[in-house]
Amino acid sequence: MTNQTKWADYVITAVRYNSRRTHIESVRASADLITSLGEVKTYSRETVISSIEQGITFATATPANGKYQYGARVEIVIIEGTKYIRTDGNATEKDNLGNLPEF
Fold it and tell me: Is 24 contained in some domain?
């Protein structure tokens, strides 16, 4: 990380999509420790959605020159009753956290 302010409670750095690539199955995320990221853990999509609904914040970050660069805040978008995790608010029926690496 290159900042001195907290981006979010957790920072997502990689994703795993389902076979149709419409839903994220899980993410790799770490606690935002302000000057660094904590231990990398894998969280299910459902855990991320539940956590956001409870007020826990998530942001994305991508590696750049040995550090992480802030991406965007992760939000829930509900389309026809289905909850999606997204970094943009458009009404596309799929999860989208930008161009994060896949695992």
Answer: yes
